[in-house]
Amino acid sequence: MKPTFRLSAALLAALLLVLAGAAMAASPVFDVDRTFYPYYPSLIKWDKSTIPFNAPEVCGSCHPQQFKEWNGSVHSLAFKDPVYQGELNKGVKAVGHDIARQCEGCHSPIGVVTGAVKGPGLANLPATALNGVSCDVCHSVSGVTHWQTPSHEPENGSFILSPGVEDPNNGQTLIKRGPFKPSEECGGGFHECRESSLHLRADLCASCHQVYHYEAHFPLEATYLEWKHGPYAQQAILCQDCHMVDIATFKRSADTFRKPERQEYRHVFNGANYLLSYLAAGAAKKNGEEELAANLMKQYEMEVERLKAAAALELSPVYRGGRLVELKVRVKNIRAGHNLPTSLTNVRQMWLELTAKDETGTVIMSSGTINPDGSLPENSRLFNSDGMGNDFHFSVDPWVITAFSRHDTIPPRGYKDVYFGVAAPAAAKKIVVTAKLRFRQAEQHVAEELLKAVPKDIDLEQLYGLRAVPPLPVVDMAVQETTIATSL
Ligand code: HEC
Ligand code: HEC
Ligand code: HEC
Ligand code: HEC
Ligand code: HEC
Q1: At residue 311, what are phi and psi to the nearest 5 degrees?
Q2: Where is the signal peptide (predicted)?
Q3: Alpha carbons 470 and 462: distance in angstroms, whole number
């Protein structure tokens, strides 16, 4: 009796698996071809061969300039990032490693295809996995599958890695793809070169900068599509033209829609995550890596400068019956090629702080001043989004969020108007109003939660000198102070 029962249980389990698979594949909206995408829910593909991937230091021995620029970029930190490791650790506990591999597909693509990354943590990993988005990721990309994805858009790492070819007669040949028609000497005998128009398009960045929920295919981060549907894409100003150049060149690309000269491109991939660069600079300094620490501090300064260049404020009074009743603040996205803010909009915080004082210096109204515990007051005007799960409850976790209950960001070259009611005391003839557009990576308690969740082998005190999470630094992206008459 017993053996038969075991057999039928196994049969039933197998049948259920097949049915589950069939149910997935049969989704009329998001059809997934699991043979085509073997690392699902990461959509990475790999031309599997014995061709090795190489650590960035290897590429750096012949390409020192690119290495120096990349080393210390957010791409070089994409896997080691303690905030990422904390969230990954939570994700693996919540949904299991098979699903959390989706995260690793973008944060350590080589770690995923080679199978080196088996979960959160940094211990015993090869340099190719630890270095996140490294040289050999981007320069081994031979194509994209953007039209075959479940959403029929770039998503979740929908690119193909082909580091080279193997041939029974010629052995292994490394092939690196880049923007040029290769010369005879290209590769210095180490690799062959292929001209790749993909590297001159935003599609290269798109697969990783469109993050979808692993199952519901909800766009959690939509930087690529925000850009594609905006004025910069129409004028052929690409991600590379603002993020692979220095700050002055980025401003020129944004202001004039003029493409940078070839020699102006830099591998800095400079964005807005000044907190990560700052933490990593501290860790490098502690470790005696002076050059890296200096590089990271330079990244930090560029990130702050980029944020300060992104937006502008216009403050104006609104009178009714001759009396001042409202203050209008126009918030303009002047230089971000996508919405402002972009990417992790459900975690990032960009908000208006407004303070009005009468002639005696007494505050008569305020909004958006950070509370002593690091939170923002209820009435603050935030530009970002609130995530919700399929139970319609609030969440910050990317494996839970299947929709936004609020999504309020500013399109490229667009603006939003915000009105604040103000009742000046009868005696006041003038008031002084200060408006600030402020930015931080996360709400204080969200950052504390994430850093609490880092895997055990990342000792925050030892690595970063962090005993507790200090108040998160805030950048003032734009500030305007104006004196306004209380009546006409
Ligand atoms: C399609 C590629 C992709 C996938 C999949 C992906 N991420 Fe990311 N992740 C990114 C990009 C791009 C950013 C940078 C966005 C930004 O800085 O605003 C990012 C940023 C983050 C950050 C913020 C890091 C910081 O220092 O502030 C965390 C945390 C994070 N990801 C966790 C995850 C987790 C957990 C998963 C899996 C559930 C995941 N990511 C899946 C591409 C991806
Ligand atoms: C996120 C993707 C990405 C990463 C990571 C990356 N590159 Fe590039 N690389 C590009 C793109 C895009 C271009 C073309 C930019 C342009 O238009 O010049 C490029 C251009 C190049 C070129 C030819 C143009 C030049 O600058 O001389 C070389 C060589 C190169 N990369 C080497 C490297 C090395 C070495 C590393 C690692 C230290 C690296 N890349 C990391 C995307 C990347
Ligand atoms: C032995 C030296 C050597 C090593 C190691 C090396 N390269 Fe190159 N590579 C060259 C030379 C030489 C050129 C051609 C001149 C140039 O662009 O600097 C070149 C060109 C390139 C280009 C431009 C190709 C084009 O046509 O646009 C890319 C991209 C590139 N290498 C990537 C890499 C990557 C990624 C690695 C590490 C996996 C690497 N290289 C390692 C010597 C090397
Ligand atoms: C293999 C996936 C991948 C590719 C391809 C890729 N990125 Fe990224 N990128 C990431 C991840 C992951 C992060 C965030 C890492 C983190 O915050 O821990 C990131 C971060 C960034 C940042 C910094 C964001 C910040 O908050 O400061 C910029 C800027 C950026 N990428 C631009 C680009 C551009 C431009 C390209 C194309 C030339 C590109 N990326 C291609 C995965 C990728
Ligand atoms: C016209 C210039 C411009 C173009 C084009 C552009 N960006 Fe940006 N990007 C910015 C500016 C300015 C910021 C800082 C403000 C912000 O966070 O939006 C930024 C920020 C970012 C961030 C960091 C967001 C965060 O909160 O940490 C990422 C990631 C990013 N860009 C990726 C991309 C990608 C991918 C593309 C192409 C699809 C692109 N950008 C095109 C100007 C540009």
Answers
A1: -130, 160
A2: 1-25
A3: 16
Under 8 Å between Cβ of 156 and 42: yes
Average pLDDT, the chain: 93
CB distance 200 to 219 below 8 Å: no
Give the pLDDT confidence of 110-122 residue by residue, as tens digits. Answer: 999 999 999 999 9
Token digits of residue 456: 């055990």
Domain with CATH 2.60.40.10 in the chain: 310-443+473-485
CA 212, CA 160: separation in Å to the nearest integer?
A: 18
Say which ligand is closest to the CA of 205.
4
Sheet arrangement for strand 385-388: 394-395, 385-388, 403-407
CATH of domain 310-443+473-485: 2.60.40.10
Instruction: Return the ligand 3 atom nearest residue 185 CA.
Output: 12
For ligand 1, atom 12, which residue shows the shortest CA distance? 209
CA 329, CA 154: separation in Å to the nearest integer? 36
Ligand 3 centroid–CA 71 distance in Å is 17
190 lines ligand 3 (CB under 6 A): yes
Residue 63: CB atoms within 10 A of its CB come to 18
Q: What is the pTM of this model?
A: 0.95
Q: Find out whether the beta carbon of 80 lies less than 6 Å from any atom of ligand 3.
A: no
Task: For residue 110, give the ligand nearest its CA.
Answer: 4
Q: How many residues does the chain have?
A: 488
Instruction: Tell me if residue 96 falls in helix, strand or coil.
Output: coil
Provide the pLDDT confidence category of residue 22 given band limits of 50, 70 and 90. very low
Cβ–ligand 2 contact at 75 (below 6 Å): yes
Q: Tell me if residue 367 falls in helix, strand or coil.
A: strand
